Amino acid sequence: MSKEIATGAIKGSHYYAEQAEGLLEKAIAEKGADFAFEFPDTAYFLPQIYAMTGFEARTLGDMKTALEQHVKPLLSDVPAENMNLPYLGEALDAGMASLFAQEIVMAVRYINEQEPIKDDSIGLTYNGFISDTILRDLGVQLVDGSMPGYVVIIGAADSDEQAFEIARDLQQKNILTFLCGNVNGESMTKQLLRKDVQLGWDTRLVPLGPEVEHAIYAIHWAARAGITFGGMKGGDFQKILKYSKDKVFAFAMVLGPLNERIWTTGAGAINMGFPAVANTDIPVIHPTGVTIYEEVAKELDPAKLVEKCIEVRGLKITVSKPPIPVAFGPAFEGERIRKEDMHIEFGGQRTPAFEWLTVSDNVEDGKVTIVGKDAEARYQQGGQMPMGIIVEVEGRKMQSDFEPVLERKIHHFVNEAQGVWHMGQREQNWLRVSKNALKEGFTLSHFGDILTTQLKHKFANIVDKVQVTLYVDEAEVKQKLEETRKVFMERDVRLATMTDESVDTFYSCILCQSFAPDHVCVVSPERLGLCGAYNWLDAKAAYEIDPNGANQPVLKGETLDGVKGRWKGVDEYVYQSSHQALESFNAYTIMDNPMTSCGCFECIVAIVPEANGVMIVNRGYTGMTPIGMKFSTLAGTVGGGAQTPGFMGIGRFFLTSKKFLSADGGFKRVVWMTKNLKESFADQFKKRVEEEGDPDFMDKIADETITEDAEKLVEFLTEKGHPALSMDPMF
Ligand code: SF4
Ligand code: ZN
Questions:
Q1: Which site in 36, 43, 309, 563 is 20 to 30 Å from 522, CA atoms measured?
Q2: Phi and psi angles of residue 38, each rounded to the nearest 5 degrees, phi first
Q3: All domains in the chain, ordered by first residue
Q4: What pTM was estimated for this model as a whole?
Q5: How far, in Å, is the centroid of ligand 1 from the Cα of 530?
């Protein structure tokens, strides 16, 4: 490492340590050392400090202790005796100290209500701290490679156009982008806003804050991944650093001149294994320490800059762009089209519409047919239009069972086109095309082009040919809709009658092993994967698409326990694919060898001993629960690929299954669930409780508006005559 950089990094760390100390002293004088603080929605205290040292900073006084014990020793020439970090070289130590100090600075700023920063001059509130919920939300995308990594951009591009191009390039490659820092007040955030680019999680361009130290939010977000998904504990710094380097594909892009604050933050990030690429000439950096230390490239062409980052970080990017005149990629999926920006819309209860995918044996590959009078002219005119989309696919390995799996992809593929928006499915679909997309030349037939190319690309093993027909005349759409309704009905009946008993093969999913090495999901017709992304048909289709992939058939074999849901074949598979960590799985109970949980579960089921029942809390709910733990804390005790009797991560849909805790008494065990869950599945729950012969049962389940306290919960249940109180003891 060059002397200049090392000195800069060390100087920068003293700057942050002093800042942290000053802010802390003032805050303690005002509020007292016992003043409690936690960042919004996290179970990891000050995450960087907690992940590296195991120290749980809960109060201002604790932060002061952290500063004395963990920041200052890293900055002294002779390491203090209790220094529990590896020797990474002085500059790297200084970098880590900076991250700790920046985290304290941000915490005090949160206490003072100075974070997240709101800048009225650009009409933006920055994201600030990134919650545990978002980390879990993105879990599956991070493991299945659909999001290959993330980048922290510090500074500003040379021009608005360059900023726009870099962002668009990253979006098309589906790389999550965080923005922070500034160059004399100018920033990439401002540049993109001037170019009318939508910022936020939906478009994967997330502004964290205007200063370089806001990068800490992205860095300590990564520090949590090893704990959230990898089953590590706070203080396992070596494992967590290695995990962060090997599994979290993050890197930094520094635009504009460098200074001590950037050097020291960069040195901190390098501890985490995040290389940096800059667009300015800087002194050579040599490899050192336990992490990859990349040389910084002088690359002024923005396209090359992104390329260079990808190469340096070793990201695997697989993109396929259909032949359409607008940008394309998952990052555009969340983009909204407001009424003022809309050129035309289809469906959405405004015009008749539907979409249907079917197997056919007379498909002309790539053919797009538009049926309707003056179709293109009416489209050009704008407003509203009927739309029936029929997609026909042909392939030797294609089965009618896969139709719904592929049909659901219509939503994603169409949405990925910039300036095109899609919602719903079947006859509830709703599409919009923006004025901008029209201007760039997006026509009706491009809908078809998207579907023909993407279905073949993503399902190469089962789909050989695709053709699309678009109907745009009202009478014809209505008539075709009648026909497809029959098909949808048949499909629903078939799915509803599909039970765990009706098949001899389940499917595994071990995608999450890249994060939680011993975790296995066994997906059956009546129990989907805990992330909610894979049901039995999805897993079956995934296996056909990639026979060597993460989804494998699991022959049930002999039934060892029909009530608890235990099969010989499943046990054998689980034992072997969990690297002998797990002996046995029961699908229908939470008490005895329940399925494992990685980190991306949609909900957690947990027993409430006082009530002899269970409660269910969904990811994203940030309030308290009757067992005295928030989702984020609870998630910490359940995840990492372990079996935890009494606690279990599940996919939301499993709640509506007849097999949900069927060995423990079933749905009647539920004593508390969040209002959000009650509302999202209102219809399905109504049906379930009727089947159970207790049509008023939903009123007997408490939620956060009734109570978040165990004692009051029991009172409520007693008053309502909840069946769990008189059922067999759960343990
Ligand atoms: Fe991970 Fe299970 Fe979802 Fe597969 S089904 S992605 S293993 S949570
Ligand atoms: Zn997972």
A1: 43
A2: -140, 145
A3: 3-111 (1.10.8.190), 118-313 (3.40.50.2030), 336-488 (3.30.1650.10), 501-726 (3.40.1470.10)
A4: 0.82
A5: 6
